[in-house]
Amino acid sequence: MSKIIRILGCLLLISTIFATNVRPTMADGDPVSINLRVTGSGLTDIINVTGYSVPSGNITDNDVTVDIQTVMGALIYYCQDNSINIEVTDYGWGAYVVQIGDNVDDYNNWMYAYNERLIWVSAAEQTVEDNDSVHWFNSMLGCYQLLLAIDNTKIVQGEDITATVTWTDGGGTTSPAENAGVYVSDTMGTYQPEPGELIGYTNTGGQLTFAWEEVGQFWPYAEIDDRSSISQYPAPTFECIAPSYSFSLYPGWNFVSTPKKLEDDFCTVERVFGHIDTGAHSIWLYDAFASSPWGTGMTAGDEVKPLDGIWIYSTEEDTVYLVFDTNPRRVPPTKQLSAGWNAIGFSATDNASANSALTSVEAQWAYLIGFSSSTQGYETSIINNTTEGDHAESGEMYPGRGYWLYMTSDGELAAIEM
Fold first, then answer.
1. Tens of pLDDT along 176-229?
2. For the domain with range 21-141, which CATH number is right: 3.40.190.10, 3.40.50.720, 3.40.1190.20, 2.170.130.30?
């Protein structure tokens, strides 16, 4: 009996040794020398080795067998060779690294960069060659990624949009990516945008501002030095819609208004006038009921409302694009007017006589004066109840313009179009 026990013990010892040090039979082929690094959460290096020799052949972990001379195979080989915990599985679409090391914060969060480029080829299929570098990292670190962000996800045709491209290196430092090419694709593929059109290159701050004229849905991405954000998830996207109306600005002061109520996404001073170079001048709204009617100037978040006359300075000729609110259930705009001078807007997209446009305050209005931005001078006044001559009340008001209106008493001005 003791002899049988000794034989069984010997067999158990032999099986344990082979189970611990088992290696597959290597196919004939030269080994490759790679640099291998594994960074866990908190920028902790689990593996950091250069010139590591990887033989040819196959290797198995958790019933998953892969070629050793691949990104995944080299990782498994090193971990098994150095008693580092590694867990690989196959969820049905291919081999997948679940865990490297023992930190639970790293579980199921692994990605890799091949020669300092984040790619989406399966790690079990990406072969390695001499002097290649492989960096596995916790995906929450965002290492080796170009990331592109845009300042507006919904723009109007002709409006500027700014793309910001950043780069996060293996040390966790995020920096602007200078001279990155910014591309815009009009087609989203199964996993990423289809190759698009090169728009331009980022400046030292990693930014590129460009005007966009095409209507539709678009997906921007960036590329530089063999690195790309085309696989960024979720993919940045923006929608460009056609404007409902537009008008021109001229160098100098412009007295303007919106003919109709604007859509919520396009109704603020920033969205309407943000692209205009005002030469550091404030944008002015005149409130006849305020103790200081001019106030301190409009802020970026203030709403641009119909029936308001707005003064804006432009250093050059430019265009303002408007997107109207098409909700049929909204209440028609009105504006309270004070006795004396008021800054008003014209509430229609077609010319109309002052007599027609000001019907709601027919009994209170006296004088109307427009301003020509192209000549930088006031136009001939229009006088209520005057039927002939240059001052006749049949004189026209124009879309997109602002006007001074003198009231003999308070009143409520109503829009003539929805």
1. 999 999 999 999 998 889 999 999 999 999 999 999 999 999 999 999 987 888
2. 2.170.130.30
